[in-house]
Amino acid sequence: MPSAMPSSMPSSQPSSMPSAMPSSMPSPTDATTTVSPRSNDCIICDDEETPWMIDNEHDCTNFDYLINTMCNKNTNWNNNKFCRLSCYNAGNGYAGDVCCNGPSSEPSSMPSAM
């Protein structure tokens, strides 16, 4: 049975009986943690073209064939991380890359311009 006046000193042993008046404060196990897909471990990715792409006036944003066949599938591209942002955006990112400047599934807090 609860006392009429709460004690200023907590008891040293927990009660074996449940409280008649449960606390309205949530317990630590009631809290949920939401992890954002964009963590502090993300990097700003560039879109550095290969020398061949530069010589032939191609860039990473408009050469889907190379982005889909070379990015994380070719040793030279893996070693140099060519077209890093475009590869990431296309779902062909390099192992361990999380680009901060990649597409987001989170809604923007800023209104879009009309």
Short description:
By secondary structure, this protein is mostly helical. It is built from four helices and no strands.
Describe the model.
The protein is mainly alpha-helical. The chain is built from four helices and no strands. The N and C termini lie far apart (65 Å). Mean pLDDT is 77; it is low at 27-36 and 105-112.
Write a concise keyword list for the protein shown above:
single chain; 114 residues; mainly alpha; rod-shaped
Structural class: mainly alpha
**How many β-strand stretches?**
0
**Any idea what the radius of gyration is?**
27 Å
Count the helices. How many? 4
Helix content: 10-25%
What is the general shape? rod-shaped
Q: Please give the alpha-carbon distance between the first and last residues.
A: 65 Å
- Percent of residues in beta strands: under 5%
Mean pLDDT: 77
Spell the H/E element sequence: HHHH
Low-confidence stretches: 27-36, 105-112
Sheet having the most strands: none
